[in-house]
C-alpha cells in the first residue's frame, strides 16, 4: 500500500495531530522511517490516522526526563510524517513507513484519548515544504570526510556509490536519521534552522564521537 503526500505548505497540514514519543527516533522532511507498531494504543493511533489525514508526529521525550512514565515530558519540536506504506502481520502488529512532511512546534497537548495528541504549528519551518532547500550551502566534503572517518573507526560497510549519487538534502538527512547518537544530538539535528546547519551539527557530533573513541554517546553541550 503506497500513499502519496499532498502537503505543500503549513496551511495544508492538520493543526491537531497524534504524536508518537520515541527516544532516539529522528524523522526529517522527505525522510523515510519504518515503524513496527504493536502496543494497542498505537495500533489505535495508526487506525485513526489512516481514517483521516494519515499524519503522525514523531517526537522525542526530553533527555532529562520528567512527567509520568506513560506520558513523559516532550521536546517542543517534532516532525510530522505521513503514512506512505502500511501492512498487517499475522500476530496483531502492523508495519508502517512514515515519510517526513515538515517539522512542527508543539503549542499545547490535547486531553489524552489513549494516545497523545497535540495542537501544533508549522509556521517556523516553512522551508521544510521546499524540496532540497539550501543544498548549495552544505559543505558536502566535510560531511563525507566525517562519514569516512566514522566508517573506518567502526569497521562499517556502506554503499559508497549510492552516497556519492545522493543529493545533499537526502544525504544529510539520511545520515542524521541513521546516526547512532543520543537524544540531545538527534534533537539538535532536528532543530537546526537549515540544511547547512544540520550538516554542521552532524559533522561536529561525529567528530566528537571520534575523539572520544570509547563507544559511548557523545554529549552536545
TrEMBL record:
InterPro entries: Lon_prtase_N (IPR003111), Lon_prtase_N_sf (IPR046336), PUA-like_sf (IPR015947)
The entry's keywords: Hydrolase, Protease
GO terms assigned for molecular function: peptidase activity
Ranges for domain Lon N-terminal: 17-210
BP GO annotations: proteolysis
Presence of the UniProt keyword Protease in the record: yes
Coiled-coil region list: none
Keyword Ligase attributed: no
SUPFAM superfamilies tied to this protein: PUA domain-like
Matching PANTHER family: ATP-DEPENDENT PROTEASE LA (LON) DOMAIN PROTEIN
Record's protein name: ATP-dependent protease
Organism: Methylobacterium haplocladii
